[in-house]
């Protein structure tokens, strides 16, 4: 059996990255059976260097608690970093 290259393993393990919709708080990803995931989106602070290379250094990233899909912030909303905004 041929060994997988590191590019193949990175491609197979790379998480899906989506953009959050305005005021979105739950995951809208579908499972392989077509069901809605609906996992809570939580801020992810300590992501590994592999993810940092994809999303950028110091990026604001949210992650689904169930399917581990990554979400970038909505570009129309103000950033939530380090302050609570009302």
Record the SSE blueprint.
Blueprint: H1 6-13, E1 17-19, E2 41-43, H2 49-55, E3 62-64, E4 70-72
Indicate the overall shape: globular
Give the mean pLDDT: 82
Distance between the termini: 57 Å
Largest beta sheet: strand ordering: 1-4-3-2
Number of strands: 4
N to C succession of SSEs? HEEHEE
- In helices, the fraction of residues equals 10-25%
Structural class: alpha+beta
Low-confidence stretches: none
Give a verbal description of the structure.
The protein is of the alpha+beta class. It has a domain at 15-72. It has two helices and four strands; from the N terminus they run αββαββ. It has helices spanning 6-13, 49-55, and strands at residues 17-19, 41-43, 62-64, 70-72. The protein is globular.
Distinctive features:
86 residues, alpha+beta, four-stranded mixed sheet
């Amino acid at each position: 059996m041929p060994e997988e290259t590191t590019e193949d393993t990175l491609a197979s393990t790379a998480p899906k990255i989506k953009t959050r919709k305005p005021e979105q708080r739950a995951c809208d990803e579908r499972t392989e059976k077509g069901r809605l995931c609906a996992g809570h989106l939580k801020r992810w602070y300590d992501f590994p260097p592999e993810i940092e290379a994809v999303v950028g250094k110091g990026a604001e990233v949210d992650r689904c608690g169930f399917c581990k899909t990554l979400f970038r912030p909505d570009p129309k909303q103000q950033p939530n970093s380090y302050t609570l905004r009302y």
